[in-house]
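Example complex used in Figure S2.
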Amino acid sequence: MNKKIPVGILAATGTVGQRFVQLLADHPWFEVTVITGSERTVGRPYGEGVNWKLLGEPPPKIANLIVQPTAPGLGVQVLFSALPTPEAKELEPAFAKAGHIVLTNASPYRMDPYVPLLIPEVNPDHTGIIPHQRETYGWEGYIVANANCSTTSVVLPMQILHQAYGLETAVIVTMQAISGAGYPGVASMDILDNVIPYIGGEDSKVESEPRKLCGTYTSGKIQLADFVVSAQTNRVPVFDGHLGSVSVRLKQSASSEDVIALFQQWQPPAVCRDLPSMPEPVLIYRPEQDRPQPRLDRDAGNGLAWTVGKVRPCPVNNIRFLSLAHNTLRGAASGSVLNAELLVNEGFITS
Amino acid sequence: MNKKIPVGILAATGTVGQRFVQLLADHPWFEVTVITGSERTVGRPYGEGVNWKLLGEPPPKIANLIVQPTAPGLGVQVLFSALPTPEAKELEPAFAKAGHIVLTNASPYRMDPYVPLLIPEVNPDHTGIIPHQRETYGWEGYIVANANCSTTSVVLPMQILHQAYGLETAVIVTMQAISGAGYPGVASMDILDNVIPYIGGEDSKVESEPRKLCGTYTSGKIQLADFVVSAQTNRVPVFDGHLGSVSVRLKQSASSEDVIALFQQWQPPAVCRDLPSMPEPVLIYRPEQDRPQPRLDRDAGNGLAWTVGKVRPCPVNNIRFLSLAHNTLRGAASGSVLNAELLVNEGFITS
Amino acid sequence: MNKKIPVGILAATGTVGQRFVQLLADHPWFEVTVITGSERTVGRPYGEGVNWKLLGEPPPKIANLIVQPTAPGLGVQVLFSALPTPEAKELEPAFAKAGHIVLTNASPYRMDPYVPLLIPEVNPDHTGIIPHQRETYGWEGYIVANANCSTTSVVLPMQILHQAYGLETAVIVTMQAISGAGYPGVASMDILDNVIPYIGGEDSKVESEPRKLCGTYTSGKIQLADFVVSAQTNRVPVFDGHLGSVSVRLKQSASSEDVIALFQQWQPPAVCRDLPSMPEPVLIYRPEQDRPQPRLDRDAGNGLAWTVGKVRPCPVNNIRFLSLAHNTLRGAASGSVLNAELLVNEGFITS
Amino acid sequence: MNKKIPVGILAATGTVGQRFVQLLADHPWFEVTVITGSERTVGRPYGEGVNWKLLGEPPPKIANLIVQPTAPGLGVQVLFSALPTPEAKELEPAFAKAGHIVLTNASPYRMDPYVPLLIPEVNPDHTGIIPHQRETYGWEGYIVANANCSTTSVVLPMQILHQAYGLETAVIVTMQAISGAGYPGVASMDILDNVIPYIGGEDSKVESEPRKLCGTYTSGKIQLADFVVSAQTNRVPVFDGHLGSVSVRLKQSASSEDVIALFQQWQPPAVCRDLPSMPEPVLIYRPEQDRPQPRLDRDAGNGLAWTVGKVRPCPVNNIRFLSLAHNTLRGAASGSVLNAELLVNEGFITS
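Predicted assembly (1404 residues):
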């Protein structure tokens, strides 16, 4: 790539938006030229308007960009969207209609039958739906969504098992980090010395999104996978990193040794192996009986790798295991960046 | 009761031992007259030898007792045992043989077919095995065990469901407090901003103990319940209170409304309703979608009540719910005290 | 007292308001008959409108009271005010003018020369200013303020030293609990695994309020104490309990042994010894080198006692020590309740 | 440097030892060729013997080294010592006598008049004492110590003020991370929801070490600085990063504007500017009223920079400020690595 592709970030001042800024500041393929933000910050340099919550300082190049209002006509085609749900619902189709390619972290269009819910290592072929999306909705551009951070933390090993043995059911209990709720998010009085066994809307996302992610794309249609998921999501006093405890019933039986070997040998689909942000390895199997742990494993592969462990026979179902991913990196901003890289590789984004 | 029954506490200086001291200091039926402790503390007043970890100060009456070595011949029949596993394994039978009644919090004899694994509200009739224990082993006294704290935190609602509908399987994921590991126990560097998805031996205890607790006593035999449990136990940065996320398959189908009504109407067996430490109510059903929570619910009923909530249909099994109990009170010392009260009520302990 | 004195609570739905509700529900002298709250809750039973954050449930008697708007003419003379600063500033004088006795936890009138900033154990004679307040401002009622929770946590030992040796300077660094910021207050993302070395307005309160509290009342005037305080306040990941590290320079020199003896022998002024909420002892001196600690000492005396420790010579000044008090009990609601009890004892509140 | 200097690490399996391993694995000047460890690990590859507590895995090159017993004759001259205090006291002089250069993180020889207590940015000229150490003790090698991590976190701004205005007194209160106590170190039951206002021996180190660090080296003698320090050290629930709240009295008066300008313009001594591990900048002044914070600032400059803030007039003394440094990096292992780099630059270590 001779010249970087100019991109914009919608709602760049929030928690996920700041991650986009951090991740794209030195990206080899993309260059941030447009930043949008809330009314309070419009017209000011990003570095002044943002209440920077990540380590260090906002990257200087981006800190100097003047914050624009969030509306079509931003002068760049590719947009990373960190918009909150209501704004995303309203504005993202407008952007797509106006010719923008919207890589969104928001939930409203994840389950839309024409929007790919995309994780390159899980379902890269779902990009095939994009032309049908444009045709169906009459949009010049299109929307690609990444999954909810809780779904993301468990879906890769689920897909590997699904492809190898057929997944029948999964009972999932998550222990999720506070950063998943954004800022200010969870009140310290609620979570210090405590667990909150409820995250609004999260159980149903973890129950539905994997069926789309692990579904099959054929000729203009994404067929949902036919397994059933039960999810109970919990907030724990952990800063970053979502941990899922999963028990699965498989269509074709497998021993825990089989599954461990499968996890150890697994390689991501060829089409996504050379993406610049792709970690190596993508999936880490840890043999210790007390791993993965959020604090120790969330930063593996620059926060982009999944760590699995405790693969054991389940007395009730077939196999149980733990899976962990970094919620604001793998499960949010970085996921969209990887999606954009895949789209470049497949010719859906061109400079 | 005109006169209090004298009792002793074995290993009274540890975490569970201190709880026994606290709970028995003003007990209406029992009076602590003997305290045993480690070699370091033998011969010194308890108040000097103990590194008191509970709020306030050791109760003055007990603080002045001289710590004895842990060996039969202590001059009281009833002993509350907070012995660590290896010592419990070796010494508790010796005490029982010598005529002592041992109410133990330790694990070695929990699954012994002649030792009642007892929770008054769950299986009060299991005391029927006591005469058979004495006869079989040729002991003058006997051993009664309370359950592991993790088992305890979930087993009451399991038994209620089992008795009403028949339990077929249960998939349990726990989020457990650091105090469950005793002192010093969990290193702060391991648990701050983290979850440890492993507690030594705990998964198998939660998988086996409920089958005995919910089993049937008939004519000298405790028949294990025939359901199957899958348990994955986790340590979280919470001081007190074990929370379990449970998904069950029932033999006879039930709606979540049925189960909620069952939990709301449930009353403990008549034989244990008037025990002095029995909380009222024993089982608290909370309708909020984000309860129970360890910090808010662990102290309900002086730390002796169970709190259940989030009773919902399970897409994979039948019903799922959350259950919480205070691990060092309900799940440890107080459990043994309630057991002793039941034994008094049933004539197994006499003054 | 034959009949309880009816009282009201202003802004009873917030964090401090809930504490008032909890503390006054079974008070021997006072009976809550009026509750006010935000617009959202007006007209509904308190138990429905409140988002109860304390353990257990709202006391039934008060839960059934209908929430009133916060405006004079509430039908009770004595009002406990948990109003936020701006509302307190505007409304409390209006209540006092209308004949109400306002016991406020808010800051606006703490440093008013005619408003007693009152802690019964510290400066009970400052109530003498009340008639002058009424006369000066032409109010039928009056305002009595309690101190900021950070000030409170350190001021009692300061006053004891001031009265014994004369205080010249104090350098204070506090480590304060998250509950001091109310709910939702401190974001968990800000305080987990962190210290925030700033609490808005708190440094200056701790520097000014002790001078008034330790000041001298004579003939219609409170003369500020002439010592100088430097305060740097910090938020730490602790739920309840403010800890202050204090180094003082004394006018008349004293050894650490002198000061320890002074703390051990100190008794509160006779006028406040028999108040129903007064703990016994009020001041606890702990000889251990690692006390006081927030989790272990905050609940001493039902959260109403101060705990001091680590009394040592200071290489730079004369003496240093630690002081701890429960911020939402001693430092907020309970402080006002004790003030009301003192006012009853001194005849400023009559039934 | 054409060829790397071979070095050894003493007690490489502990917390500080692991940091040495991590820091030296890819060092441009040094190559780890020798590793020593406890009896349990001797004879095994380091990667097998160590209970790795840092993120990721032990560096492969070092993981394969066979652990040696800790005794002179290790075949490398330069040794980084992470020995515990008693072993350090006994063994480090033996190593120095045998010709080794010992860069120690341990405390026993820090205040020895002939051992430089060295921080390159603070007192690089104190290396001048090395020849006198060798001569006085008859050693072929020598010992260089780094400071206690608490001292380190505050001493750089103290030295800058001392050199500019003359320091007369400092009152210091620290809030220190749990990692400072090593592993397992602080029990979670002691520190969750708590502050421990005591760290064994730490107060006196912070009171004495700055006087040596800020002292003057002339002709074979380190003259202690004549200021007086009062320190009260506290443990808080923070993983890494020690924060100090400092109030100083200066010999020559200065405004907070003066001090801020001084901190902003300060540059480290020329002799240490080009050391490979030296961060740029070394000292970061943050203007925000709520900084530095451990979680946000500890990793500045790869954990090697100091962050200062809240420079304000002190009502009691002259100036107060906050200072923060990463305790296990800047305050421990990295400090020794920087010392070694300085010694290479000054010719005290040669390849």
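Residues 5-148+332-345 of chain D form a domain with the Rossmann fold fold (CATH 3.40.50.720). Chain D has a mean pLDDT of 96.
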